[in-house]
Amino acid sequence: MPNTELMKNSLFYFLLLGSFLLNSCSNDFEVAADWKDIPVVYGLLNIGDKVHYIRVEKAFLDPDGNALDIAQIADSLYYDNAKVFLERESDGQVFELQRVDGKSEGYPREPGVFAEEPNWLYKIDSSVLLLKPKESIRLRIDRGNGLPEVTARTLVLTKLKLRRPDPTNTNSFNFAYNLPTEIQWSSDDSTKVFDVNFIFRYAEFPADNPNQVEEKTVEWQWARGYRPPAEGLIVHSLEKELGEEFYQVLKNNIPVNSILKRVFLGIDVVITGGGDSLNKYVNVAESNTGITGAQEIPTYTNLSEGRGVFSSISKLVQKNVQLTQATRDSLRLGIHTKQLNF
To answer: What's residue 117's pLDDT?
Structure first.
């Protein structure tokens, strides 16, 4: 986030709604034109979602106002009469989205400098839109007041498929101390960037009261912003240098407690892939961050006007992957985790 003085001097800022894959992106936009209406749009279509949401907001300069004050006025963040449409370009079918309050949908706005209520989003059920893999979807936004239509396009990504560990076979991880561990999945060639996460699930209970069970998790980020080494790859393999890292992650995230017993339940594998526009959006932000980066991060957008991104994602969740017996033995007796009482 920019500092307070920078926000006051620019008289404009907007925080884009972030997600899983967008943690590496800049969430701030700086605009330097007086009284120009600037749409800010965020939307990621996922063929596996039951409901699709698009965020549409606006940004502008107020030469006589303070951005910190304006941010608390909900009417300053939203268009009064905007209409949002998704068009299937193969047959021209158009679907209008419904404006809803994100809070009532289970998506409250995080507390901060921006007005939290209402949290307007535009919604359509997947049963109405019926997305198909690799089809082209066009976003159209009518802001009202005779303003130009805002448009963008994306290709719908196909579902990802886990190949190793094989969900149709043993479906188990082998974390050997001195050997690399591999995960492999497939996608279509339009998926350009990936995040891979493991969620280690376990049960915990007092040794003298095994009925007082509490389920807990440890999240391990296996890869972030992974891009295939060659264009057009559809099978992806990633390795960690040594399986020992698995036990070190658990040691660093589960406290030693001699009165507690723990039982391994399973590992949920979560892989999220992003389309070309999302990849470019993330890449532009990454290229100008860090100690050698520029002070101002250039903004990428695939909108016809404004700032933001409209793209597609695909999310694979493989629940309850198990561990080989050798890995279970290392979890119970190994140098890093033997005090954790598994």
So the answer is: 63
